[in-house]
Fold each of these.
Amino acid sequence: MPELFMPTPIAPQPKHRPSPPPITTTELTWSTPASPAELPAAVPQSTNTTTLQLPEVRHGARRTSPTNIAVDETGARRRKGRSNPKQNPKKRAQWKKLLWVKQDYPDNWVDPTFLKDLQRNINVHPYDFYSLVAESTVVVQHLASAVIFVTSFVAIYIEVVSPVSVVAVSTMLTVAGWAVWDMGWEKREAAKERAVTHKDGGYDRAVSNNNNGGASSGGSVSPSKGLGLEFKRSHHQAHSSGSYFPPFEGGGTPASAPVSPSKSSRSPDDDPPEAPHQDQSEQLRKTRVIATAKSALLIYFTLLGLSPILRSLTKGVTEDSIWAIATWLFIANFLSFDYGSGIERNFPASFSTNAAITSSVVLASRLTDTSHVFSLMLFSIQVFGLFPVFRRTLKHMSWNLHVLLTVVLVLGAAGGLMFVVGWGWAVAWVLGVLVGMGGCGWWMIDLQKYKNEIHGPWDPARPVIRRQWA
Amino acid sequence: MPYNIACVPLLPQNALSANQAPAEWSATSSTPSRVCGVESHIYQLASKLSDRGHKVIIITHQYDTRSGVRYLTNGLKVYYVPFFVIYRESTMPTVFSFFPIFRQIVIRERIQIVHGHASLSSMCHEAILHGRTMGLRTCFTDHSLFGFADAASILTNKLLKFTLSDVDHVICVSHTCKENTVLRASLDPASVSVIPNAVVAENFQPDPSKASKDYITIVVISRLFYNKGTDLLVAAIPRICEIHPTVHFLIAGSGPKAIDLQQMIEKHMLQDRVEMVGPIRHEEVRDVMVRGHIYLHPSLTEAFGTVLVEAASCGLYVVCTEVGGIPEVLPSWMTVFARPEEDDVVDATCRAIAELRRGNVKTEKFHKRVQQMYSWTNVAMRTERVYDGICCGEQASLMDRLKRYYGCGVWAGKLFVICAVVDYLLWWVLEFWYPRCNIDVARDWPAKEIKEVKDGSGIRVGKKRSE
């Protein structure tokens, strides 16, 4: 008889066990273990069989030896008890998932409650096909802009297009883009601030909680964070007094204006200027334009000065090495690009940008003239450094414009391909983009069926700690 | 029938030294969190099996300068195999390099059963593979719980699947551990036995005179790691101290989270109420435990939790988180369970304090009950039953083994088959190169005379081994 010291709460067990499916050797054959995907389905089945079938039946199965473990001094009694469980149900107490009770069951007993706490795919959410396709436009945009850059380079390289005209067009577009970007500045800052305020608020709450908690709290906590806050606040004050200049900004454009006080700087108490401060915001705008123009000029002249050096930097490297290096760098650019982030990030994926710029540096060494090198570098900074920021902003501003931009970019890339290699490639590109967008979305949804997350009592628990004391 | 058994564990440094029981234990060892408690298990199990007439040898890799063969008490023989240790006592996972020396040991000692411990040890997996190649019976004991999500777990699980697809029997320390292992290695649940750990109850005698009469002491003995729930402890201690002014804490163990505890003590000025005694040796665990009234165990994952049994044996009321295999270990009248949440840990501890004050808990009865629940003799007997089971089945042919390996996965299956085939060929090369007849058979340690071992469920007579 089992030694029960005290009744413990036990999950109710089914009184009537389902009749077992006819046992086949394959069910228990070792050579075909259940794959992870089908395991949870397979295990309860074998559970049934092991519960009800006698060792004699399982002799046909491969793993006969384990069942024989029950054969010992008490084995005969056990088998007797098992062969007619309905006759003497009271003789044998229910199995319990406990270790401290000596139970009248073999050590390898598999109870019907085995794996009942198993949970599968509890965190999986299904994807929607059209939203997947819509999101893939971000990838397509990046791909298309890279194709436009490469085709422009090829056109410059084979000397059918003047690089100066290319960069002139792109600079005009960039300035136009900057204008659009600058229009939405106030609104975007407010949106960003909302996100940041949320975060800051969370932190403040934690800190204040903390302060309530212990007498000498905060002392060890706030200095680091508090200092940061102070520093940025002073920045902000400088900002509002009009003497604020953002730090180094890129190429006459959107790139980096928001480096400033935006991100984690503003805490909830210093609110943005409101309508009455119209003139102040106008002044701010003016400051911003001046600062941007200043940094644009800085970049312009730096690039101009560096162009002769860049031209000869990899001149000694053979042509095919250059193509290989450039290809790999572009692949690195695609793979590491930050497709997911929204406007809250000012400089997303610096590695990706660096890879693309480096790639254009090595490509530039194939050009003959310093002015060509300068044009190509400027073009690449515009395409890979500033354009992503604009795309991000546009997506935030208007979904329709975002789709329009995608179409324009895809068609522009197709035009570039047609111009450089032929119309067949252009058609292939457009078709590839369409099929890729649909196909990858479908593939992603299709792959979801292989999802097999397993959770159970063996998972390390996640501690719930209400008060973050440090 | 007595067996010759080779245990292949991964032992932390200094775990087994000559003529000495396991010296260092989880509270002090520097090994990765999951392999602790294993060494004590092996030592106790091996000596009990020796008492029952079997011959047990332990094969492990060398530690610093300790290599070669050593004898422990009871004629327990330990082979420290020279190996190149890469990091923290982990050996290079070479699949085949261990085979020649392993074969020598197996033939010298006339080994019949290879029993591997701890799924993190590559040596254990190798030994099981080679043992199967040589036609030995194999058994594996799993002491740990693994998740399924992170990359390390996925790799370990794949390796486990490889080894366990051709093992004769698996032993798990708790039912939760069994569920976990069955899922991880896609096993037939009937080939997995649950045999819990045990404690040497004599070493954990209660001593109420050591505990304070004026205030309640809560003892915590654990390595201070994240997965031992030290964060919960850090959060809960100030609140408990606030609610109960007469409660003191006694914390033993070391680890990266010790600094958090220290900061908490300073911040809340609890220096006179929370004592941190630092790392302690296994022998000292009992002396620390008997100074307390309540044992608090806020672990986040635990396959068995031997320390809970030890605490109960010392007559401590146990407060623990309800994770892993912990709910199976002790009856509810010895424990208060909490969810792994700060609030609930505080609540449960307060409930325990209230119960103790009211005198509703008969802690003086704990020791005797624990003694009845867990004994190494019982564990050895049940393990022996497993050995009996695996030794009476027929041997699988090479083709059967290969089929099993092949079923492990699309790519992994083929890789495993290649490994098994190479291992088999290597065995033949070794048989040809260093024939069996040239290997001396080691003389056995003089076995004890016929001895009766009594246990609750029957009497078994150990036989004289070496005739």
Note: Chain A has a mean pLDDT of 69.
Amino acid sequence: MKSRKPVIYFVVLLAVFASLELAVRRYEQSLLSVQNKVLLKKQMVLLRRPTHVLFLGTSRTQDGVEPRELMKSMARIDPDAEDVEIFNAAATASNMDSLKHFVENILCKEGLKLLVIEVSDPQMMNGPLASELDEASAPKHTEAHLQKCLRDNSYLVRHRKLFRLDSFRRIPTLWMSDFSVGTELFRRALLKDMVEKIDRDALAQEAGTGRWKPEAIPPADKLSELTLSEPQIKAVQVYTEIVAVARRSHVDVLFMIPPLRGEWAAKEFDPHHQVFYQTLSFETGRPVLTTAARELNPRFFRDDSHLNKMGRTLWSDQLAGAIVHTLQKREGE
Amino acid sequence: MLFNSVTFILLHIIVLVAYWSAPRQGLRRLCLSVGSLFFYGWYYWPGLFILAASILFNYVVAQQIEKRHSRQWLTLAVAANLLGLSYFKYSHFLTEVVVDLMHVFGSELAVPVRPHWLPLGISFFTFQIIAYLVDVYRGKVKSEKDFFTFVCFVSFYGQLVAGPIVRSHEFIPQLKVKRAFSWQNLQLGFFYLIAGLMLKTTVADTLAQFVDYGFTHIAEYKTLMAWLTVYAFSFQILCDFWGYSTIAVGLAHMYGIRLPINFNSPYTASSLKDFWRQWHITLSSWLRDYLYIPLGGNRNAPNRNLFITMALGGLWHGAHWKFLIWGSLHGLWLGLERRVALLPGLSRKVPRLMNGIKAVLVFHGVTLLWVFFRAESFRNAMDVFKALLLPPYGIDSKSPDTLVSLLVLFLIFGKWLSRYLIDDRFLKLSLKKQLAFSLALILLVLAYSQARLDFIYFVF
């Protein structure tokens, strides 16, 4: 008698994939979030306990703000701020579209009072990540039609990135939403970051220089004749829409330029950048905080546009005043 | 059309069902012939005329060679095949060489530029046909009288465009026997297919992204990333070609046809000679039987014969100086290996340790020679060597963690996979293991397939 093993093999394979297809259809929304960094952060915000302040932006903010330090500093400044819950929802490679999508979807979050949004070239210029673009790279003609047909009819194919290691890695993060403060470091920096000790004396000394104190760029009383670039025009438009939408939900907005050094900092003196920030502040009526006009100590940077653990601690502490002030003003109104 | 496309999978299923539904073997061969020509034409239909002309010519000529047992007919036929190959593959290169030479001697030669078009798989089917013609002349095989059997032999879509190069005495008899459909063959073929797709779409195509960037931006790299880039190419080309060959073997299994394996853990070889016995096995054996031995083999000036064989083998891979250099260096190395044994005393005392050390050395030597193979130009190759070997040495600030993890994972997983991609070893596993391995492979293909990169060997 011939072996029935091969037939059983195919039947079981089919059954497994049919079950997977059904499971993906059933839990599509939750599973979607682990396929993309921005969607993951959005889902984490929605799942966690009431949150009052959210940081949004790219890896610069993701690596640059430590909510625990910020909360401690805020409590020191204003004991009433002790219960303020902060979450860093910034994600690597965030772009203007994902930012807008994010804000529109988290404004319903219970307790939300303030959004601190990064303003930076990467935030404005980033396109979708190559790994997020499946459809765009599909060949044309018959193959494209067949691939589309497969995607349209099979959730398993449509959400195939779900089976990538990156997605699996994000599932525990999602489960830990309620305990997380949202700082997700680059993997390569993680070990170094864990063992790196914070030199409190050096921090106090650096803070004493006053270079890290964020200042608001004054809004232009009259718009400059210098023209903005296309991404800048789009950014002003999107940021204005975000502020308007947030206001409707009684959520305030602060703009922030994370600390920079070297070439990145030099760019900030470019008249086009200055005009852009002034225009942004003018159009939205919201301040843009910066430290970019000063030479900052390289000891606090991982690279010219990302802070290290010491820098993150320092910058979070220095931001506390501005946030407390904004929250108090909001309460007053 | 590409193996890693939905169109291919769909059409393969259609041809497979038609093949097994046909009541007679003749009808099955017809199905396979029509299917194969259709697949070939789908990729680029003008190529079909070249393939059809080659099939018709060699079908008739082989019978004449057998009938007359004439060396002239064989010479004529082989020359005609080589002429076709040379015209499409080398005329552009030869013209450039002539123009450059004339330029050196102070004369300018204006040559009209001919559009460069290479019929898909021409190097493979030409070599396969030449071997067939020689075997017919030597009386090793009879010329094939059944036209559709011959069409299947030359154009079987599983291996037409990138090998393995099959011998007529291995392939044709399998087409003659009427077999019943076998679920076991289907299962084995399916496993080979998904394993090959995984090698190609998950490993090779992912590595390709690092390699493509690395070779074009080598000036930005320090020593570590430069080495990682060439390691990545070593594994990219292995997985690309091993993946293709594995898919080809798998497709053939589904028709109840056995194709020879083309790769057998080549990077574990402890000598270059062994490397060529384990890398692209069907090409190596073709070069040995139809070039090296006729040149005199081991009997008469073996080092010269080795050098010529490997240099021409290099040129077979592409019409460019870099392939000629790559092949010639392999030829020189093989010649050197014949004369010099590495620490023979130690090799006898601690053979396993020495084999390990030799394997590492051979792998690095082969990897360095791949630089010529992959580089865009000779200058690019020199830039890569500079980054690899010359000071200042340094470690890049860029994170190579994805590349390193991919290479390490492949070293572990690839070794395991190679064990089950020989004969029908997969069928001997328990059902649970078969299912677990297959599921893992399918999920890897599903999750990671890039679905946009051609197989490297398609251009040969």
Note: Residues 309-332 of chain A form the longest helix (24 residues).
